[in-house]
Design goal:
The complex is a heterodimer of chains A (188) and B (153). With 188 residues, chain A is mainly α. Chain A has helices at 3-28, 34-41, 45-51, 55-77, 83-107, 109-119, 125-135, 145-165, 170-187. The longest helix of chain A has 26 residues, at 3-28. Chain B has helices at residues 2-8, 12-18, 22-47, 51-68, 70-74, 76-85, 88-100, 109-128, 134-149. The chains are: A mainly alpha (188), B mainly alpha (153).
Chain lengths: 188, 153
């Protein structure tokens, strides 16, 4: 490897470390600052600022990373050929994502805007799954796909709310959400 | 608050006497809307006590009230406890329907109540955002609430 390539791959690696540290930290504490990210990443302030000149720019990269991970996890959830298993998987994955990242997305306007765009993204795994399964008659066909997605979000939100209130354990909430979504989206 | 006082033709001090804070006012408005919905549920039960018919009527009222009071939707997180706490007529009706076997009894009642509220708020959001038209929204929400509550076959 030439010295130039080596430097670039080192830079790429430290950029990844900063983003991943940012995801972990900001998911738990949306107000965490650059110094905390620098400390937790073990890279030092100068390196962090070289990659991300401001907290806003880092936050943008962190959000993009979280949405990428979300897309991948949802994609895996709907890969099941059985529509009922796929719908339960969608519910469970959405609840898991909301528990991990919900605080960050609820915390600020700019993160909520990115989340809103994600929710209504036509190419999202959930939407593509619903459209395909509906077209093949494997889920009910008398509800618009956009509404089915909203129902999934509403049920996810309720589950997360009940878990937060301590009235349901996470596994019980996931099971209830799955039952409810199957009842609404498949059986009708 | 000042804008509301002016709009209502009241002095600021009168408004503040009744509602010492914005939160208190929002809670008061939410309680008022829940009361109207309950009155509507009561009328619907008198017209036709069939569970499906009452759920369709509930859907129609939720959409209508949601569209008429968009600020409640905008502050849905703040007024959620007030929305959840109210509605004795609706709660009693659904609990009785559950005892009769017309509403599923394999899930906690609290879960059914919380999901029907969240799903209704989601539909209000769809209508306010212009993604689903009002009449279609009422029918669709009715079908969704029926599927939510129906006993498992």
């Amino acid at each position: 490897m030439t010295p130039g390539k080596q430097r670039r791959s080192d830079a790429e690696r430290s950029r990844r470390v900063v983003i991943e540290t940012g995801v972990e930290l900001l998911a738990g504490d949306p107000e965490a600052g650059m110094q905390e990210v620098a400390d937790a990443s073990g890279l030092g302030r100068t390196t962090v600022y070289r990659h991300f000149p401001s907290r806003e720019i880092l936050l943008e990269a962190v959000i993009e990373e979280i949405l990428d991970r979300s897309r991948r996890e949802l994609e895996a959830a709907v890969a099941d050929d059985d529509p009922e298993a796929a719908i339960r998987g969608l519910g469970a994955t959405s609840i898991g994502l909301a528990l991990r990242f919900g605080r960050l997305f609820a915390s600020r306007d700019e993160t909520s805007a990115a989340y809103e765009a994600f929710k209504h993204d036509d190419s999202s795994p959930a939407r593509r799954f619903l459209a395909t399964a509906r077209g093949r008659g494997r889920i009910r066909d008398d509800m618009p796909v956009g509404w089915m997605r909203s129902v999934i979000q509403a049920v996810t939100f309720t589950a997360v709310d009940e878990i937060g209130a301590g009235t349901l354990a996470e596994d019980a909430a996931v099971r209830l959400a799955g039952d409810t979504l199957v009842s609404i989206l498949i059986r009708g | 608050m000042a804008a509301i006082a002016e709009h209502a033709g009241l002095g600021r001090s009168t408004l503040y006497r009744h509602f010492p804070s914005r939160t208190a006012m929002l809670d008061g408005l939410a309680a008022d809307v829940v009361g109207r919905r309950d009155a509507g549920v009561e009328a619907a039960i008198a017209r036709d006590p069939d569970t499906g018919a009452v759920l369709r009527a509930l859907a129609a009222m939720n959409v209508e009230l949601g569209v008429r009071y968009p600020f409640l939707f905008a502050h849905r997180a703040a007024v959620r406890p007030a929305l959840q706490a109210g509605g004795d007529v609706l709660t009693a009706f659904l609990a009785a329907a559950r005892d009769r076997g017309d509403v599923r009894d394999d899930q906690p009642f609290r879960w059914l109540m919380a999901t029907q509220l969240a799903i209704s708020l989601a539909m209000i959001g769809e209508v306010l955002a212009g993604r689903i038209a009002g009449e279609r929204a009422t029918a669709l929400l009715g079908e969704t609430l029926i599927a939510l509550m129906a006993p498992r076959r």
